[in-house]
Amino acid sequence: MPSIRQLLDSHATILLIDSSSACVQVAVWHRNWEPIWSAKSGEAGEQIFSAVNDALGHSGMTLEMIDAFVFCDGPGSVLGIRTAAVALRTWRLLRARPVYAFCSLTIVAHALALAQNRRDFSVIADARRDTWHHVEIDADRNISPLKRVPTSALAGALVTPEGFRHWSTPPAPMQTVPYSLAALLPSLVDVELFSPTAEPDAFLHEEPVYQTWTPQVHRAPSTT
After folding, report:
1. Of 64, 81, 95, 102, which is most buried, counting CB atoms within 10 Å of its CB?
2. Structurally, how many domains does the chain consist of?
3. Are the CB atoms for 162 and 177 separated by under 8 Å?
């Protein structure tokens, strides 16, 4: 898993898209200058492309000049993330370029552990059906893989990123922290956060299982 610095060593210009929260965040990164950010609140289907156009325009770049893509594959708004994933798959048809994915909760966990020296807490986001996406940081600043846990398993200090909707009520007080990648990522440039992905899509804890449908001929009920 490369870091931002390693990505920029390999790809001169990177387009980052995060549509996991209520605010779409886009950045054009170049190895020789500071990233150009654009943040747009509203319906993701419109704001993703508006933010991309805004960031590209202010950077003086075009989509064709982008060497690699980085995007948040979750957790967060599944509709927003899948809209971004569809855009990336379409742009790759125009010219093949690598795509790297990152986890929203892991970004928050690393940033709080590094910048604020926090320990023994969990970063969570609603996974529906009384379950939560969950990343845990222990006393030694070890960060767990992303997993899904029931509400009953939540304990200790709980943190959730701003702009992430939740329907279930956690069993303990939950602190909401800012989710601004422009503020969070500068301290994480050497942290290995990004995974290459061949087919951009929203993160799933497990692949869906579909029941096989067996067609049957409908007959009138027997009268005997």
Report:
1. 81
2. 2
3. yes
| Domain extent for 143 | 106-177
Which pLDDT band holds residue 168 (cuts at 50, 70, 90)?
confident
Under 8 Å between Cβ of 28 and 38: no
Residue 214 in tokens: 């067996």
The answer to whether 71 and 85 are in contact (CB under 8 A) is: yes
The size of the chain, in residues, is 224
Positive or negative torsion for Cα 83, 84, 85, 89? positive
Question: pLDDT tens digits, residue range 198-218?
Answer: 889 887 665 444 455 566 666
CB 70 within 8 A of CB 7: yes
Q: What tokens does 167 get?
A: 């329907």
Measure Cα distances from 177 to 47, 145, 160, 169 in Å. Answer: 23, 20, 6, 17
Question: In the sheet that 23-30 helps form, which strands lie side by side, from edge to edge?
Answer: 33-41, 23-30, 13-18, 68-74, 99-103, 195-196
